[in-house]
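User: Before I run my own analysis I want an independent prediction to cross-check against. Here's the chain; please return only the structure tokens and, at the end, one sentence I can use as a sanity check.
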Amino acid sequence: MPSNPIQFPALDNGMLAHLPVELSIEKMTRATRFPDGSLLFAASEARTRYSWLLRYENLNPQEWQRLLDFINASQRGASSFTFYDPIGNLLAQANNLEDSIWLASPGLTVDPIQDADQANAFILTNATAQPLALSQSVSIAGPFTTCFSIRAKWAGGANFSLALTDTAQTSSVSRSASAWARHNVRLTSSGTPETRMVSIVVPPTTQIIVAAPQLEIAAHPGAPLETGAQSGVFPNSWLAQKSFDTRSAAPGAHSITRRIESLR
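Assistant: Structure tokens:
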């Protein structure tokens, strides 16, 4: 079962929103005022407010109805839901492939390596006779199109594969690394599975240098976005508006503007 039964709707093309998307980030720090008027700011209790402005244009009747159903399911903003940053990286620890959130097959070693052209690079070594994978799973509910990408390099060339799985199906592509370049694979989900698993598959007796892994709700990779312990999945989000700017110019030409907010 989904961790939150209110699912954010996808457009017919598998995207979450029309571009451009506006994101504003505000740091909020708790302040205590003393009788003399002085203020003490508690940096340890600071939180961050994320606010996305989404504009949907020329929606067809099915897309329009899904958005209305979503608004009603959230009681016009009274209930929270999980939101996926439409311009963010849904992977955690994109800078640290040694972190425990990344699962390495037994026999695959992951070591940091210094590279003048790429920060946070790692060398993956498979000394066995079987292909081995470095993977991460992300909880994503909804029929979204997701794109997994990494940067890869190996002098003289080295083969490897990228895989993206939603437990019902797998999309896999074979690539060859030489100079630094970004490689990607994409998958459009049926929406029923609750996870996506990304994998970098290293062939037997092969080494490869990789960096900047990224999972996006997109058809093609965007600019790399670094992440730490937290990813672009926001489990407690809400509709931050009491009224909705909607219009229907003609059948199949429905438009609406929504603002989504979340705190961390």
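Sanity check: The CA atoms of residues 51 and 261 lie 4 Å apart.
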